[in-house]
Amino acid sequence: MINCGAFRHARPGGGYNIYFLPKDTASKSKYLFYRYYVPKETKLKTNFKPFKRYILKNFALIGAAGFIAPRHMKAIKDTENQLLAAFDKFDSVGIMDSYFPKADFFTEFERFDRYVEKLKRSENKIDLVSVCSPNYLHDAHIRFGLRLGADIICEKPLVLNPWNIDGLKLVEEESGARIFNILQLRLHPAIIALKKKVDQGPKDKIYD
User: For 1, what's the count of Cα atoms within 13 Å in the CB-facing half-sphere?
Assistant: First the structure.
């Protein structure tokens, strides 16, 4: 018998996810859950089907009032992770309450910096930073997240000048964290058709 707590989460398509959280300190510090999927028609006392082992990830978000930020919040929520802190100099982020009403929000970067730095030394350290700020700030905010030891999810472009990529690569290697760029149009039919046209064209042709 595992010494654990448990809670249930209804799935949009029916049925439930049952989470078991071991009560030993080591597991709690890593937010280690054991998740089981239970079909809607199944009685909760029997027939639990092992689904997968799940580690809850802690997110911070920069640029919470931006156009694309709600999609990041929704994705964090849909993947059953949690947003602990968010920053934007504009306080028009009511959408946050729809997804993460308990998340801490800051309009001053210095306070946000101090808060996530404090989390870094606790069991609630930030695992990932979503960068949704204006393009010219992406470079600086990516570096900030890497210095926290967090992986980065950033909207395109990562940088405005190609040579700045080399600098980010160095910081990435020093921190041991990773940068992940969102290229949401890479599978768009028009982009695929364009790539095919380029691939089939003369190898020495310059497209500008």
Answer: 2
CB 62 within 8 A of CB 131: yes
- The two tokens of residue 93 are 């982020």
Q: Which residues pair with 53 in a beta bridge?
A: 34
The Cα–Cα gap between 60 and 125 comes to 10
Cα dist. 135→28, 30, 56, 124 in Å?
37, 33, 29, 29
Structure tokens at 175: 């921190």
Q: Tell me the backbone φ, ψ of residue 98, rounded to 5 degrees.
A: -75, -25
Range list of β-strands (E), 119-173: 128-131, 151-155
Here the tokens at position 120 are 């870094």
Residues 106/112, Cβ–Cβ less than 8 Å: yes
Q: At what angle do helices 164-175 and 138-147 cross, to 10 degrees?
A: 10
For the record, the structure tokens of 59 come out as: 């997110």
pLDDT (tens digit, 9 = 90+) per residue, 133-166? Answer: 999 999 999 999 999 999 999 988 999 999 999 9
How far apart CA 69 and CA 141 sit, in angstroms, is 15
Q: Report residue 1 as tokens.
A: 């018998």
Most distant CA pair in the chain: distance in Å?
A: 67
Closest by CA to 20, choosing from 1, 41, 39, is 1
Query: Of 161, 153, 156, whose CA–CA distance to 178 is shortest?
Result: 153
Check pLDDT > 90 for residue 23: no
| Spatial contact of 152 and 126, defined as CB atoms under 8 Å apart | no
